Amino acid sequence: MLSFNLPPFAGKEFKYMEAAVQNRKISGDGEYTKRCSEWLERRTGTSRALLTTSCTHALEMAAMLCGIQPGDEVIMPSFTFCSGANAFVLRGAKIVFVDIRPETMNMDERLVEEAITEKTRVIAPVHYAGISCRMEEMSEIAKRHHLKVVEDAAQGIMASYKGRSLGTIGDFGCLSFHETKNLSMGEGGALLIQDAAMAERAEIIREKGTDRSRFFRGQVDKYCWQEAGSSYLPSELNAAYLWAQMEVAEEITQNRLRSWKQYEEELKELAAEGRIELPFIPADCEGNGHIFFIKAKDMEERGKLIQYLKEQGIQSVFHYIPLHSAPAGLRYGRFHGEDRHTTRESNRLLRLPLYYKIGRNDISYVCDKIREFYRKNPA
């Protein structure tokens, strides 16, 4: 079976993990945590980067830093993973879902302003597949209404919008280093902070609500409980694993982009015939090869294609079930306006195998079988 995903492995992960153990510092905030954080700050230009135990936890920290209170409202797309909604729901917020642009699957910025009420506190765009939302417009809307912007850039490492790294355009950006992402530490993430004045409070929240980080830097003679927080600091072993990939992040990204381009080239004829749709990348966006998807005619055709590929030894997957139609979404949120695209487009989308060092012959095999499926099922 050709797997949909294989976690990235650069080659020095075990060497660095062993070094962390020999240093007798494996609980976090050691040498490798520092290296990863500094790399993120250099690479993205963010004011401060803090590694976290997951992107989910980075989002939860962002919600706390935004001061979300019960009854507040947060605007986001319904086509996303539940972590983005959970982060704010856990603080008592109501989620207001808006429709997407079908060409990018990103939240439609033209619908955001009309969804704002006196209770709105945050706009939370999601950069699907590492392709940016229209952040210039999002930022302008937020500024006019004095709102915070929390970027869900879980899929966005090494991607940019108008030359700016995803996750650095809003007030806070949240990255994922889950095993399915371009760079991985198994489970992990990072919070990117643009306002340097917020960094110290973020550190306190990440360290169970204490100023322990300041204590270890020698800035205070003891540490104590300062405010509500949790344990969001990852193990030094995870950071060591991630560092091996950060060292070759450009190589990993270029390898994925070549695979992405191969899919596009081999499937463009089928798209020209109108049998499938391919991803669209706006001119002001630079992608990272995170996801290659196609869109079938409808859910029924997609289901048949998934089954056909499975029979040929190819694993393909779809996502997401729109949050506004899920049981929790019905309890904790509401859809503003008309669902013209979210459900329809999510029902058509199919993700193809794509990971670091996937073979060119493997990609060609997938494309051959997709073409074969459509030859056997004429329009």
The largest sheet is: 8 strands, mixed
State the separation between the terminal residues, measured CA to CA. Answer: 29 Å
Percent helix, as a range, is 25-40%
- The CATH architecture classification of the largest domain is 3-Layer(aba) Sandwich
Counted by DSSP, the helix tally is 13
Indicate the overall shape: globular
User: Ranges with pLDDT <50 over ≥5 residues?
Assistant: none
Order of helices and strands: HHEHEHEEEEHEEEEEHHHHEEHHEHEH
User: What name does CATH use for the topology of the largest domain?
Assistant: Aspartate Aminotransferase, domain 2
User: What is the count of distinct domains?
Assistant: 2
Strand coverage percent? 5-15%
How do the strands of the widest beta sheet line up side by side?
1-11-10-7-6-2-3-14
Query: Helix/strand/pairing class, anyone?
Result: alpha/beta
CATH homology superfamily name of the largest domain: Type I PLP-dependent aspartate aminotransferase-like (Major domain)
Kindly provide the name of the CATH class of the largest domain. Answer: Alpha Beta
